[in-house]
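User: My collaborator sent over this chain with a note saying "see what the structure looks like." That's all I know about it. Can you take a look?
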Amino acid sequence: VAATTSCQVLPSARCLFDEPFQVKVGGLRVGQMVTVKAASTDERGVVFSSSATYRADGDGEIDLDRDPSLSGSYVGVEPMGLLWSLRTDTLHWYFFKNKVVEPMVVKLSVHEGEGEGDGRMLAEVTNERFLIGDGVSRLPIKEGNVQGVLFTPPEGPFPAVLDLCTFMSEKRASLLANKGFVVLAVEKSTLILQHFVSHRWTAVVWINGCSANVGFPLYYKKRQILSPLLYDFSKVIPTESGARIVKCCVKNPLAEENKGSLIPIQQAKAHFLFVVSEDDLNWDSKGYVDEMVQRLKHHGKDNFETVCYPGAGHLLEPPYGPYCPSTFHGLVRYPVLWGGEPRAHAVAEVHMWKKVQEFLRTHLSCEETKTKAML
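Assistant: Without extra context I'll predict from the sequence alone. Here is the result:
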């Protein structure tokens, strides 16, 4: 009697977005070659897919935590490879997932044979990956020109985090709220300094940031406090894919004419976690952090720590989402390469996410004078 092939997602087919899963396949013939596929559709209707070929063991089973992929979207033992290797045929497309009340839905299926062909499907299962956990509330906030979303866990009090997004996203904020932080996500372009400057910020997570104020002047109480560091677009590097490399386009913040854009980080009393992707093609994140660290040390400061990720690109996010090599850049108005190698980038995101939470828990408490952090 032929065994029925099964495909399981453990410990549960429903989990949080930033939680790993274990995929197991059973009921195969000894040594049978099969292709495990994953597919997910983003909020704009674009389909992402991945696949990997595996050989069943002596019990007719495959365990992605143990067994290597022999070919496909990745090779080797990669328990979460089907997720970070998800790709779309649409060029320069980012996997849009921002509706936190709806899960990322991943269809996993097992097919006869090797490769990306249409081998007969033997089993399938659906994995739902939620951005917001049970009991976490979501409240849109609007005060003057400031718009954001506040995420609050159940049963406080909680340490508070302000999540500054280059372009508005609720993903990171909602996932942090699941970990016990109350988080306000705000798009940087809507930030009005006087709303926040009176607070005592005790911890700052600085992810692939610049040491200067880029693009637009910064005002406080109608007075410019930092001039903008501008781009030199003659230094754009085109590529065959149509995406461009803009890493060298940002002008030198240390040049005399640009020093008015430098962020006076040496005056800050907060603790800093500098997160650096060494293969960032958006700009020179490593160089900027090295300069800030040198400046802090020069002023006798030791209120910082740095973590660097070789092989990681600019877009460091909470883990287990699809790696994004290039997208349309909202500021320069054309597609750019973000850098990074897919596997190294995925490893960096897992480590970074744990490091950020550890850092925030170390430097935040729920005391009145020590409650706020900035991402």
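A starting point for your reply to your collaborator: The chain has a mean pLDDT of 92.
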